Amino acid sequence: MHSPIARFRSQIETYGTQPVPSGQRRSGSYDLFVIMANFLVNPASIFSAALGVASGLSFLVVVMTQVVSLFVAMVVLLVMARMGVDYGLTGQMACRTALGVRGGRWLTSPLRVICSVYWFAFQTLVSSLALTAILSEHFGVELPLTTVSLMFAVLQVSVALVGYRWLQGLFGRALPLKILCLMIIVIQLWDKQTASQNWFGLPSGNDWLLVMLWFNAIVGSMLTNVADSADLVRYVNSRRSLWVGAMSGALFGVALGAGLGAWMMTVVGGSADELYHNVLRMDSSLLMTVAMMVLIVMDNWTINVINLYTGGLSLSHTLEPVSRFTCTLLISIPAIWLSGMAEVIHSYLQTLEKASVLFAAIAGVLLVDYYCRNWRLNVQALYQVDGEYWYQHGFQLSALLIIALAALIGYSIPEAWPLPVIVMLISAVGFRLVLFSRQRKASAL
């Protein structure tokens, strides 16, 4: 009879930077639908939608902006995620084809680790706003936001440490619970007097600038996943399952998350920071309190499991041959620490703008490189020194230069323009011209 510790160890995912064997890629479109739906019904999607309504946009405009933005970003992410389905690779390992073995290891991997830590802290703090509201309004317990956030953060690490199998199991149970809680919240507030009648108003004047800021923020936040988009699909059995499951799950999830946040803010009014306080002041019943608490806990747990899981894989790519389990444990330490800093919430849009420009530039190079290789990779060369992807001492300098130039241009583009899309196009066109010039020189020899 196995001890609990032995059973725990047997469940731990062993594939870090190594590809998942084809025989173990058995997940289908429904598995991916559940993961992506959970990924997009999260505290940030609810909070950002509420923030949009609080800024003056209508319910319809906020939801449509988030859905369209997500669709644009998902097309890019799913193209890059093919490497996970086709080869069982992590996204970070596949980045070596465009950036070089060392370029992928020392550029995109550390960047993604930083993003994972930041998103973990942001999601935890947003959820803690709700938990402090519940403790205050229903139980009369006043706790500092940072205290609640730190305690909540510590509880989220276990599933991510084990890996994909527990992640898949958690998500399968969490989605029905989330939908049930969402229905309860809507039913409880349905007949209340709404604070705003701005349900279907179209943008006018300066509202278009706000819409574009929201579009850029959402596309940019999603593109920070471009270097690890393959991580969650390397157990998926086909490209069809990838596109059907991931795209439908993502659209379903963002519609639910954004719809709930925008709808609650339209009903209760006030500031986005006070959203959960105002909801509970309007309906402080035990049923509403339980539904809110379960929804917030499940939302935060599922999204932050992904943040830690993908962050751990990224760090293991940098610190080879340190295991994925150890790397996940390592990044949980700064993630928990940052969860105690409330300033993370208020720097959301500024942080997104900087991160989105850089990752959009990386995305353009990765897409062109993958396309020019006819969607094929030499898996063995990804692990070789002096192999096909070694380039100049482990770096493809032309790709890194294009990324740097595109990012610098991006930081000077006006906010009213679709910033991540423009930067990605600049990067893609620039790198395609570099490859075309290289091919012409090779054919001339």
Automatic annotation (TrEMBL):
Keywords: Membrane, Transmembrane, Transmembrane helix. It is found in: Membrane. Belongs to the purine-cytosine permease (2.A.39) family. It is a multi-pass membrane protein. GO terms for cellular component: plasma membrane. This is Allantoin permease. It comes from Endozoicomonas montiporae. Its main location: membrane. PANTHER family: CYTOSINE PERMEASE, CYTOSINE TRANSPORTER CODB. Signal peptide: none annotated. Coiled coil: none annotated. The chain crosses the membrane at residues 32-51, 57-79, 111-135, 147-167, 174-190, 210-230, 242-265, 285-306, 327-349, 355-372, 393-411, 417-435. GO terms for molecular function: cytosine transmembrane transporter activity. It holds the Pfam family Transp_cyt_pur.
